[in-house]
Each structure stands twice: as C-alpha cells, then as structure tokens.
Amino acid sequence: MATLRERLRAHRRQKRMRLLRLIVTLAVVCTGAVKGWEYIHQPGFAFGSINISGSQQLTQADIIRLSGSPEPFNLFNASLSRVQEALSHDIRFQNAAVRYSFPATVNVSVEERVPALYVANSYRSYLQVDYDGLVMKVTTGIPDSQAPLVTGLKCGNVYLGDKISSSGVMHILFFLHKLDGDARNRISEIAVDDKQQVTLRMRSSLPVLLGTVSELPDKAHLFMTVFNEIKNKNIKAEYINLKFAKPYIKLKQ
C-alpha cells in the first residue's frame, strides 16, 4: 500500500502532466490562430462582396482601391472607414454611406450631385455647378447639354470644389430648384442682360421673359403654371412675358 508521501508525489506528477497538456494545447491553438490569421490576410485570398447603389460612376475596383485591400477583394484587409472618409470628400457625391452586412457584404450607397447649370468664370472656362452652388467640374470647351448655360454673368476666380458666391447665380439656382424635372430639362439658356433682366430660352427656342435676376425665386410658381398650361394644351407661343403678375403669352400667327 502506497504511503502518504508516495500518494502526494503521484498527485504532483498528475498536476504537472495536466499543466503540460494545457500548455501544449494552448500552443497548438495559438499557432493555428496565427497561421489562420496569416492565411486569411494573404494576397490573393478573396473574401466578401461589394454592392454599390446610387451611382454609375463608382465601380467595385474604386471601392477596393479606397479600402486598402489588394485585388481580389478581401474584407479582412479592407478599411470601411477609409472608404467612408474618401467618398465623403468626393465632390461627385452629395451623400455617401458605407455599411457592413452579415456575413460578408460591403454596401456602398451614394447620392450623386446633379448639375444645375453652367456659368463662365474669369479664366475663360465654364463651371458646372450643382443646386447647392458647388463647382462639380471645370471645362474649357463648350458645355454639354446636361444643364442650361447662364450667359451675362461670370463667377470670378472659382475652382473645382469651391462654392459659388455670386448672388445672381444663386438666385438662378433657387429658381431652378423649385421647378420640376421636365421644366428644367427644357431650358437651354438663361441670359442676363446689363440691366439684370433675365430671359430663359427653351430648347424649342421659345423665349421667356422673367424680370430681374433677384426676382427669379419668386417667379418659379408662375413659370410652372404657364409652362404646364402651354404643354398640356399644346399652345404655340412666340414668346412669354412673366415680368408682371399677370402673364402674357404672344401666340404664333
């Protein structure tokens, strides 16, 4: 029969063996975790997907580049905060949201800025401006037909990403913002003369006299009323005068 000393010695051996097994197990687990971490972060390991909504300009390649992940896309190597920060400072977009969706999807939702008008600046270029007055693009050639051209006003030394400070241009933007999409799309030119009188020229070449540029925001409702009347009744007009409270429509002979 084992003595007390022998039993204590055997118990201590068992404790040492259990501790040794625990240490070995932890070492194996840690080694596996490190190897697994290295594996899922290695170049060429693809994991996750990207979903983009609200933009035709933004691509998955753009999001991968902004996230810091090499291609193919690896969610473990991607920084969604970097993507959010970059898109928030991209002047093409008015709003941007980047969210993770379980199990492995990155959802990118953006709202693109919409061009409201073109106006010349002082260095012989044209500014593409959105409805908030932000310069979206600077062009040296004749602007395209995405938005009406403002003539008779210039914006000085304004550059990409700047906000327009011209009160005349801001009055025009407020006016355009109050119109519906169909009416805005039919305006080709907004001419301001040396007396600050404004004439809209529709794409059908129909001129619309609106009064002074500072009055424009208050003329939007009247313009929409007359515009819808002419469109719905297919009225053939030579010109429209909205300078006064009562509109005048000169009919074609």
Q: What labels would you give this structure?
A:
single chain; 253 residues; alpha/beta; Ubiquitin-like (UB roll); Rossmann fold; three-stranded mixed beta sheet; 6 helices; 12 strands
* Total beta strands: 12
Compressed to H and E, one letter per element, the order equals HEHHEEEEEEHHEEEHEE
Helix content: 25-40%
- The largest sheet has its strands arranged as 6-5-4-7-8-9-10-11-12
Cα Rg: 33 Å
List the total number of helices: 6
Largest sheet: 9 strands, mixed
**Can you tell me the residue ranges where pLDDT is under 50 for at least 5 consecutive residues?**
36-40
CATH architecture of the largest domain: 3-Layer(aba) Sandwich
What oligomeric state do the depicted chains represent?
Answer: single chain
CATH class placement of the largest domain: Alpha Beta
Distance between the termini: 130 Å
Q: Any idea of the CATH topology of the largest domain?
A: Rossmann fold
Shape: rod-shaped
Strand content: 25-35%
Residue-averaged pLDDT:
86
Class by SSE composition: alpha/beta
When the domains are counted, the total is 2
